[in-house]
Structure formats: C-alpha cells, structure tokens
Design goal:
Elements lengths: L2 E6 L7 H9 L4 E4 L8 E5 L2 E5 L12 E4 L4 E2 L1 H13 L9 E4 L3 E2 L2 H14 L11 H10 L11 H22 L7 H15 L3 E2 L1 H10 L4 E4 L25 H4 L10 E7 L2 E3 L12 H9 L12 E3 L1 E2 H11 L3 E5 L9 E10 L2 E3 L6 H5 L2 E8 L16 H14 L3 E5 L7 E3 L7
Parallel strand pairs: 1-10, 1-11, 2-5, 2-10, 5-7, 6-8, 7-9, 11-15, 14-16, 15-19
Antiparallel strand pairs: 3-4, 12-13, 16-17, 16-18, 19-20
Helix pairs in contact: 3-4, 3-5
Bound molecules: inosinic acid.
The site of inosinic acid has 20 residues, from helix 4.
C-alpha cells in the first residue's frame, strides 16, 4: 500500500475532484491538508452532480475514512451545511468516517467581513479572492490570534479567545472599513452551537494517519487550489494564503516527509485561472470563449467565469520541480475537441531572453510572450475512449508532446466528467 498526494499543477480547478474520487477507490483514508471552502471540487456520480468545498472528495465512497487536517481552515457553518447536502445526496456521514483535526483553524465572521471589505477597498488592484475569509483566518493563525476547532468545544476558552481578539477586529471593521462591529455574545453562541454539532467528528488526525500508514493502509492526500496559487511559490501576491504544494501534505496533516510515496500532478489540457494575476497564455478571443463554454469553466465556489487560455508548460514544469511529481493526470482533453488547431506554450520570450519557467517578479511575468508549438486539432468525440491507443491520432500527438516536454508519464487521462470517462494508464498506488 502507499501514500499518494494529488496536487494541482496550474492555478487550481484542474479537475482534482474527479481524479481524487477515482483514486479513492484504491485508498482507505483521504485527507485534506490546506485551504478551506475557497476550494470547490465538482463530482459527477451516476449522472448526479455534487460540489464539495471542505469535505474530502473521498466521502462519496462508503467505506473510506476522510480527514480534515490541521492545515485546513474550517468554516463550521459551511461544513455542517455540506454534511446536510451529502445526506440529501444519499451519503450519511457518520463520525467514524470523518475526522476533523482539533488543531485546524476556524474561519470566524470577522474573517469573512475583513476579506470582503479589504477587497472592496483595493478596487482595481484586488486579488479577486473567493471572499470566504481564507486570508484573514490564516493571518490570525500565523499571528497566534486564531481560533482552533478545540476552542469551539470549550465555552471558557472560546470566550477568552474572542475577548483577546475582538477589540482589534472591531476597531478595524468600524474605524477603517466602516463596517458594523461583531458582537461577542452572538458569535460565542453561534460558534459553541457549531462546536456541539461537530464535537463527535473532532479528533487527532496526525495520530490517525500515522497509525494508518504503519498498518500499511493506502492514504490519499487531496490538495486544493494549485501550485501557482501557493503563497510562497505562486504568482504572489495573486495567490491564496496557504502552501498548496505537495510538501504541505506533511505539515498540514501531521506526518513526516519520509511517509510520502508518490505525487500525482493534475493538469488540465488547457489553462484557466479565476481572480486577478498574470496569465501569459490567456485568450481573449472566440477560442477562449469556446473553451469556457465547452469546459463549463465557471467557478464552482463563486460562479465567476474563469479566464481561459492555451496550455502553458512553463507553469506545469515549474510544478514538476516544486512538488517532486512522479506522474501526471491530464483532465478535460475532450474540451479541446472541435478546435481546428491546438497550441502549447513551451517557453517565454521576456526582455530579450528565453525562459522556461515563470519569473519571480509580477511585472516580468506580465512581459512574458509565450513561445507556442501548434498541433492539428481533432473532431472525434473522446468521451467513449478507454485506451490511450484508441484516441484519435491528433489527440494522441498532443498528449505525447506534453509528456515529452514535461518528461513525466501520464498515469490518468480524463476524457469526460463521469467516473468511467477515464483512461487509466498506470495506477498511482502501484507506483
Ligand atoms: P482566496 O483563497 O479566497 O484568498 O483567493 C485568493 C486567490 O486564489 C483568488 O485569485 C482566488 O480566485 C484563487 N482561488 C482560491 N481558491 C481557488 C480554487 O479552489 N480554485 C481556483 N482558484 C482559487
């Protein structure tokens, strides 16, 4: 058995939900380790669609244990609503199947208010956050003023925590952002209520995972967002507030780096991004529109239209290095069907030099001109293809060109949203 980390190689929305759902069949445990309900993983099972924001996608498989690690920021209201939606979907989540780390930080009402107020104040230079309070919650964690899940289980400690932070939060909200203040008693009441409902699920994720690994059980780590939204390695400041790279699977769940066996990088057959920030291969024409429409490229968390563009291998190659990827999973290849030609950026021209990765400085990324390779498109519907050799020749050539440039094999190629619409080249758990 093995531990496998699944990571997005681009700017998120690579189709990780489907791949995780697929790989979950091979896993005993599925863990999230960073991000919060800024993520949205869309899953289609037996023609029915469900979007999960916080619960690991593995929850749809009845015999798997799902874990929310210490590195995740949890909005308890959203989590409880999600558990209700799962119930309505026919998936009852018993406490034996979901463990939430007592160490995970909690998104509080003032985090959401500050996130929205800040973005509104920034105007044109806004990050385009999901408005879920993610950044302010991580700020409090690092500032050592955060509320953790265990605080919700103990009235006295939650009261002490709120008394310590609310003065400053309310000062900021009222005097700087001209918002209404947050009422301590109301927040205390509401969050103790969430604590009572979540208590049966709260546990020690690190111990649980280490025990599972010692017992040779298969563990899947489900990354959220993508490599280039990583707060250290991404297109800063247009990033999220957590480390999205594979290394954080360890910090964010409480296992050591020697326990990871394989990292799969999920890459979409083209590139998208939501929110602001540089995007060298972005398309502003009818091809971009075609990709957006055919790919259903609208945010699963905010509904915002995603910015769409050609596949950028500089972005993917950076992700190979930053995550120590062992294989790739290609998603949404079917979306490119019908385009007369398809292009791949294999490098950039920037200030007279040729680059093969994203530079650090935002202004330089904005001056990067993609160097494209062009391939003939294909007209055939791919969704019924189950073997690589049965792909139309032009689609095969496109996939082979990616593999050759990136220098990694594909373990999975997805040709449609359904679980079965997949070519499994090699099982990552057998790597
Ligand atoms: P935040 O994570 O809400 O603070 O947003 C910061 C940036 O990350 C914004 O550009 C968001 O659009 C982007 N972002 C956050 N979560 C996701 C995701 O799951 N997919 C794609 N983009 C995301």
């Amino acid at each position: 058995m093995a531990t496998v980390v699944v990571i997005g190689t681009q700017w998120g929305d690579e189709g990780k939900g489907k791949v995780v759902d697929l790989l979950t069949a091979r896993a005993d445990y599925v863990a999230r380790f960073q991000g919060g309900n800024n993520a949205g993983h869309t899953l289609v099972v037996a023609g029915k669609k469900i979007i999960l924001h916080l619960t690991p996608s593995g929850i749809l498989h009845p015999d798997k244990v799902c874990l929310i690690g210490n590195g995740v920021v949890v909005d308890p209201k959203v989590l409880l609503e999600e558990l209700d939606r799962l119930q309505a979907f026919g998936v009852a989540v018993a406490p034996e199947r979901l463990v939430i780390s007592a160490y995970a930080h909690v998104i509080m009402p003032y985090h959401r208010l500050l996130d929205l107020a800040r973005e509104a104040r920034k105007g044109h230079s806004k990050i385009g956050t999901t408005g879920r309070g993610i950044g302010p919650c991580y700020e409090d964690k690092v500032a050592r003023t955060g509320v953790r899940i265990h605080h919700l289980l103990d009235e006295a400690s939650l009261r002490r925590r709120l008394e310590a932070v609310l003065d400053e939060k309310n000062f900021l909200l009222t005097h700087y952002y001209r918002q209404e203040p947050v009422d301590l008693e109301a927040v205390l009441d509401e969050y103790l209520g969430y604590g009572r409902l979540l208590a049966p699920f709260v546990g020690d994720v690190s111990t649980c995972l280490n025990r599972a690994i010692a017992e040779n059980r298969a563990v899947l780590f489900e990354g959220a967002q993508g490599t280039h939204l990583d707060v250290d390695h991404g297109t800063y400041p247009f990033v999220t507030s957590s480390n999205t790279v594979a290394g954080n699977a360890c910090c964010g769940s409480g296992i050591g780096p020697t326990k990871i066996d394989h990292v799969v990088g999920i890459m979409k057959a083209y590139t998208t991004r939501v929110g602001g920030g540089p995007f060298p291969t972005e398309l502003f024409d009818t091809t971009g529109e075609h990709i957006r429409t055919c790919g259903g490229e609208f945010g699963s968390t905010t509904g915002r239209p995603r910015r769409c563009g050609w596949l950028d291998l500089c972005v993917v190659k950076d992700a190979v290095r930053l995550n120590g990827l062992g294989s790739l999973a290609l998603t949404k290849l079917d979306v490119l069907t019908g385009l007369p030609v398809v292009r791949i950026a294999v490098g950039y021209r920037c200030d007279g030099a040729v680059l093969d990765g994203l530079p650090a400085e935002m202004e330089r990324i904005e001056r990067c001109e993609p160097i494209y390779e062009e391939f003939p498109g294909w007209e055939e519907d791919l969704r019924s293809v189950r073997r690589f050799d049965d792909l139309p020749a032009a689609a095969r050539r496109y996939v082979e060109a990616i593999r050759d440039h990136v220098g990694l094999p594909f373990s999975i190629i997805s040709v449609g949203p359904g679980r079965e619409e997949t070519i499994v080249v090699k099982d990552p758990f057998a790597s």
